[in-house]
Amino acid sequence: MTAEPAPGAVDRTIRRVAVFFLLVAAVIVAVAVVAVRNISGARAASDEVNRTHALILELDGIKLGFQSTEGSLRAFAGSGAAGDLRSAREALSELAEHVEVARALARPEAPLLAGVERLAALAGQRAEVARALISARQEGQAAVMATFLGSEEWLGASPAVKIEVGKLMEGLMGQLAARDTAQYLQAQTTRWTVWAGVVLNLLILAGVVWLIRDDHAARIRAARVLEEANRGLEDKVVARTADLAAANTTLQTENLERRWAAQALEHQLRYNQFIVDSISDLVFVLTKSRRISRVNPATIHATGWEPAEIVNRPLSDVVTLTGAAAGADPVPRALAEGHDLRDLPALLQDKHGHCHPVQCTVFPLRDGNKVVGGIVIARLTPDPKVSP
Amino acid sequence: MNKHILIVDDEAEIRDLLAQYLGSAGFRTTTAATPAEAFAVVHRDPPHLVISDLQLEESDGLAMLEKIRVLLPGVPLVLLTGVLFDQEVVDRTLSQKISCYIEKTAPLSRVLSEVRRLTSAP
């Protein structure tokens, strides 16, 4: 037999499983969001590192550019050769290019940009001094050239550039170190987030397994309980059926007994009727007041009366005592005292008024010790008919 | 195996009532309305006990039982009748010819107890 759990229990289990799966989904989404955010952060950090490295290269380029312009201008100032002039101009151009690239790279950070602007100002001074120096050399003004080469702007530029580039480099290296630390921490956070999500999901799934197992056990218990209840019910049904079968048997037996008693009574009555009807003498059954209550077929035949016509008539309407008993009717006394009267001469009057001589015998009709009526048996004698 | 009871009566209702009652008590019953039918049953399927009415349409039940006694000596014979006999008559006359006399006014339970007694059925 398969037992079905209660509908409420099924709904509760489904709800719980659904909640667990929602939790799993939420954890997965949370881990995914955190991981994607960390990946985006890592990419941004990587861009920053690249920019920082590029800025460091440009700062190196600026520092070298100052050295290169200084060398090439000194060479031009000494030789005045066109090749040296071209080298000096190329060095100045590269310096300006490095300054512009560094300015663009430093623009997102104001302190860096300020440092780069200071370098740009130095580069601008170098360019002005270079133009003046080139002009003085081309015009052959040696004194002016010596003035420029001995000026503070010329001599102090390289140390100032070194100092400024050193400061900026130090700051950038610090930023790189900080970004390395942040990237490491971000990677660690991502790892921890992913593993924590995996562990949490495994715990939730274990909870789902436990819940399903618990529900399965509950279903088995419910099935057993139901099975036992059904067994008990079946036993009760069997017992009740047996009771009903026994009651039915008893009822059938009682019914048969009643039918048997009824047929026995009917048989007895019919048999008694046969006995009375089979008597050829005339039989009158009287009430206590000597009225006719029943007659046999021989009486109907001899008198011509129908039963309905003769019943309830006084006996004296049909039978009249003659002889010694004619004067004082002895029948009432005999019935009252409960003794027989035998062979009394009498006349039987039929429906047509003809009289027939009969001999009557009277018996008291007893019900236990009590006389409840009488029976008169009249036997026709062969004498001819006599008119009353 | 169920004991076989032969019921002989010219009244169908009596035959049916007895057959139903004894059948529900675990007996196998066969009914016959006339002595000829009863003798046919006796030859074909000898009963363990015979119940017969006294007054049959074609014959006297007592005479039929005497003949069955010759055919099946030792088989209990029960006379069931509405004619009421004095105990003295029963003791002197009927007891020599039959195993038991039961009035039809007696309850069916009495019939059953006599049948069980005579067939030694539980």
Describe what this molecule looks like in 3D:
The complex is a heterodimer of chains A (388) and B (122). With 388 residues, chain A is of the alpha+beta class. Chain A has two domains: 210 residues; 102 residues, PAS domain (Beta-Lactamase, 2-Layer Sandwich), CATH 3.30.450. Chain A contains nine helices and six strands. In chain A, strands 2-1-6-5-4-3 form a six-stranded antiparallel sheet. In chain A, β5 and β6 form a beta hairpin. In chain A, α1 packs antiparallel against α6, α2 runs antiparallel to α3 and α3 packs antiparallel against α4. The longest helix of chain A has 121 residues. Chain A is rod-shaped and about 215 Å long. The relative contact order of chain A is 0.07. By secondary structure, chain B is α/β, with parallel strands linked by helices. Helices cover 47% and strands 20% of the residues of chain B. Chain B has a five-stranded parallel sheet, with helices on both faces. The longest helix of chain B is centred in the N-terminal third of the chain and has 13 residues. Chain B has a single domain, classed as Response regulator (Rossmann fold, 3-Layer(aba) Sandwich), CATH 3.40.50. Chain B has five helices and five strands; from the N terminus they run βαβαβαβαβα. In chain B, α1 links the parallel β1 and β2. Classes of the chains: A alpha+beta (388), B alpha/beta (122).
